[in-house]
Design a protein that fits this description.
The protein has four helices and six strands. By secondary structure, the chain is α+β, with helices and mostly antiparallel strands. The chain has one domain. Strands 1-2-3 form a three-stranded antiparallel beta sheet, with no helix packed on it. Strands 4-5-6 form a three-stranded antiparallel beta sheet.
Length: 129
């Protein structure tokens, strides 16, 4: 890549609210966009994969049969059925199944990618940041 080509590229990182997205042309992250938690200036980076893994660990311990919140939350990410239904319809993914761990992970990723504040649908979110 020539110097002129480098100068025409957009910046690698740019602020979005209190977060940063690493862009597609970044050498820092081949999977884009990736959300970076607020401590990015301190060099502490949390990707959506890290956050989903942390949520799974704290919500269900990786058990797809887990039940919590007095029976209201189920599955690997402890979704409430109403939350799962609202977001799957919002994204036009009516085929997603509440009981399927992969579908819960897919939906959680979409929620967090759309708006990082969606992470706070999980009460353990602060443990993952």
């Amino acid at each position: 890549m020539t110097v002129e080509e480098k100068e025409t590229l957009p910046p690698i990182e740019y602020p979005v609210s209190n977060y940063v997205i690493i862009q597609e042309n970044s050498l820092l992250s081949p999977k884009i966009p990736r959300f970076i938690a607020p401590n990015a200036t301190l060099g502490v980076f949390y990707t959506e994969d890290d956050i989903i893994s942390c949520l799974i660990e704290h919500e269900s311990g990786g058990n797809p049969e887990a039940v919590g919140d007095n029976g209201l939350a189920k599955g690997i990410l402890q979704f409430h059925l109403a939350t799962f239904e609202i977001f799957k319809h919002k994204y036009g993914l009516d085929y997603l199944r509440y009981e399927n761990p992969e579908d819960q992970i897919l939906l959680a990723n979409l929620m967090i990618k759309e708006d990082f504040n969606n992470i706070f649908h999980w009460s353990v979110a602060k443990l993952c940041l």
